[in-house]
Design a protein that fits this description.
By secondary structure, this protein is of the alpha+beta class. Helix content is 44%, strand content 14%. The strands form 2 sheets. The chain has a 3-stranded mixed sheet, with no helix packed on it. Strands 1-2 form a two-stranded antiparallel sheet. A hairpin with a 7-residue loop joins strand 1 and strand 2. It starts with a helix and ends in a 9-residue tail after the last helix.
Length: 158
């Protein structure tokens, strides 16, 4: 997300909080700054760790209360990849129609867009009498490290 896009997303989220009559505490501000400064997909626990680097007082409860607000605002998307935890996509507002490849071994997530896939989706939708509003494609795979080395060296970081 470009810097201007990040600032606009932050402003939009702050307006969303104001419309709900919710306060913007220092902890919540640290969380907001963290979310809109990353392009990585993240878990709640990762967001907690990153936010605490900004403000050691950020609590787990505040992170878990703020995440649903971020998703309700439409600026972040919660994604379920079949794990015991959810991932959050901070690029959703800029790119609502994009796809993900997820390594089932190390949880590495790679976003991609494809004009070819978009054309196929449009073709199928029109053929069946629908009009595409949003789309999501999720591919589960194993990364090249697993094929080459028999184990993924990134797994230890997850």
């Amino acid at each position: 997300m470009a810097q201007t896009g990040r600032e606009a997303a932050k402003r939009k989220f702050l307006s969303f909080l104001e419309s709900k009559k919710l306060r913007v505490t220092l902890q919540r501000r640290a969380i907001i700054e963290t979310v809109f400064e990353t392009e990585e997909h993240f878990t709640a626990e990762q967001l907690l760790d990153w936010s605490r680097q900004r403000d050691k007082s950020v609590s787990r409860a505040t992170v878990y209360r703020t995440l649903p607000l971020l998703t309700q605002s439409g600026l972040v998307r919660e994604m379920d990849f079949g794990k015991d935890y959810k991932f959050y996509d901070p690029n959703y507002a800029d790119h609502p129609n994009h796809n993900h490849i997820i390594c089932q071994d190390c949880d590495k997530i790679v976003e991609f867009e494809s004009d070819k896939i978009a054309r196929i989706e449009d073709e199928i939708s029109q053929k069946l009498g629908f009009s595409v509003k949003t789309q999501r494609l999720q591919i589960t795979a194993t990364c090249e490290d697993l094929k080459k080395l028999g184990a993924c060296k990134k797994k230890s970081r997850c």
